[in-house]
Design goal:
about 100 residues, mainly alpha, DNA-binding
Length: about 100
DNA sequence: GTGTTGACCACAG
DNA sequence: GCTGTGGCCAACA
């Protein structure tokens, strides 16, 4: 079980219509400071269709880079029922409760 | 083994 | 609110 695999595993647990932050995901993996490494893993994302990497947002619910483009990411989230507030996600509502 | 880069985060000014 | 700095981890040259 590699670090990135852990990330994918946790991310897969995020239900549709919900999101998670890199920080929270990193914390769930066990390294609260490895948010950067998490992003790196998402960027590679060998499990592209299996892992909903578009549900991962910044610590403030802000959309940070996305391999396929931020616009596409937002579209997917919206399609899942996630409303965006000024290009950001309301973590109070959409952030999954671990 | 070292240095750089990247979908980050927190803190200080 | 924005910029700069430091720190973290993983992957690559």
């Amino acid at each position: 079980m590699s670090f990135n695999e852990e990330c994918y595993s946790i991310l897969r647990k995020v239900p549709r219509g919900k999101v998670i932050t890199y920080s929270e995901l990193a914390r769930a993996v066990g390294s609260p400071k490895s948010a950067r490494a998490v992003g790196n893993a998402m960027n590679k994302n060998p499990y592209a269709p299996r892992v909903p990497c578009h549900r991962v947002v910044g610590a403030n619910g802000e959309m940070v880079g996305f391999a396929s483009g931020i616009a596409n990411k937002i579209k997917m989230l919206k399609r899942e029922g996630v409303e965006l507030k000024n290009g950001k996600v309301d973590l109070k509502i959409y952030k999954v409760n671990l």
